[in-house]
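2024-03-11 09:14:02 DEBUG pipeline.ingest accepted 1 chain
2024-03-11 09:14:02 DEBUG pipeline.ingest length=216
2024-03-11 09:14:03 DEBUG pipeline.predict start
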Amino acid sequence: MRYDLVIFDNDGVLVDSEPLSNTILAGYLTELGYPTSYEDSIRDYMGSAMHRVHEIVLERTGRRLPEEFDDVFHDRVFAAFERELQPVPGVTETLEKLAADGVPYCVGSSGSHERIRVGHRKTGLDRWFAAGRIFSSQDVGRGKPAPDLFLHAAREMGVAAERCVVIEDSPLGVQAAVAAGMDVYGFTAMTAAEKLAEAGATELFGEMAELPGLLR
């Protein structure tokens, strides 16, 4: 094993939540008078914390989203999670392999702690992630593409940044890992390989089952 810590993004890497959440986000923004397609949402917001949605809408329109925006959005997302959310294919086997090999791992997600826990509980991934293995953009001042979250996770796990590898599926997340001085493997299930490569991904892979072999 060439790394001392594997940091997983959550949405789109552990749980197959990006299609659900971006469909809901695009629909809600459109409902509020900010026409947004699913493709727009993926391009502009995938992998980012909620503050980025507020910042981009304000920058583009000069108008602020309503105060209740985050609460309404999360209520809709959590309801969709309860109905439809699934783990990313192959992720359970990957976590089993890492645990069997004694490889330390954790989550570094732009999502809130509540969002992470709801998703993990629904998909059964909660058995793999105790509280000490979960880190959210809520824990730091700046979300991705800033490196703060990944550096925070490494510090809390007691591992130097250069001994970490991040598993990411968004250009913003890849940029954050690169800024943190970490290797980053780009998961191409939702994002074109060239976009992750342009952002600085060290390796690219398309099936989660491939990951344990790549880490050796």
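2024-03-11 09:14:41 DEBUG pipeline.report The mean pLDDT is 95.
2024-03-11 09:14:41 DEBUG pipeline.predict end
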